[in-house]
Amino acid sequence: SNSHNLCFYFLSRPPKEKPDSDPKPDIIWPCAAPIVYSTLSSCSSYFAFVCEDKAITLWDTSVGFPFCAMVLPENYTARNIQFMPRLLPSREKISCCSKDPAHTMVQLLVLCTDGSLYLLTSGTKEFKSKLLGIR
Fold first, then answer.
1. Which domains are seen in the chain, by residue range?
2. In the chain, which stretches have pLDDT less than 50?
3. pTM beyond 0.90
4. CA distance 3 to 7
């Protein structure tokens, strides 16, 4: 949308005497560059977006703070981003949408315009970027 801000609107609002013809956002998260792609995790706990300056930011929507941020290498431009489901053995209790921050692990797949594919894995104490393949 070529905007520098993420605007959030609450779905339920207290009743007013006069409805706004131009509703104002309830929360605004500013960004340094226009946002070009965004995605929301299946549990709605995390929101990721890519800006024109190649910065990828992952927000924890429950607390309203960034969970992690990275910049793509100079010659790479994101074409699409998508959260990946965590496929773990049943004995492991790590979840994308865990309420315990110590056990949170989020994976984001980034497809670049040159066909390369990156897997970004982020936890509370670690962040990894892995090139999965080049077309």
1. 34-87+99-134 (2.40.10.480)
2. 94-95
3. no
4. 10
